[in-house]
Amino acid sequence: xxxxxxxxxxxxxxxxxxxxxxxxxxxxxxxxxxxxxxxxxxxxxxxxxxxxxxxxxxxxxxxxxxxxxxxxxxxxxxxxxxxxxxxxxxxxxxxxxxxxxxxxxxxxxxxxxxx
Length: 115
Known about the structure:
Elements: H1 2-87, H2 91-107
């Protein structure tokens, strides 16, 4: 019984290999037959490809400085916002310290200047 299962599996693998080989051969033949047509289309459409590439290059040359300046501005704004987010919780401590300093300065005696 095991021999029959093994033979069936081996036969299935052989059949799949034959189908795969036929597909590879058909693909190679199709590729070889359509090669001149594909080459002709590439030669015909080369100027259009060249024009599209040139337009993309011009667009890149125009947009790159704008995007660079915008990126720098955005980075600066994000740094300022980040610093404010870090320093905002310290604001009550700064205010209380300033008030204590003002009160201490107001009640302290100043030295009298001798003429």
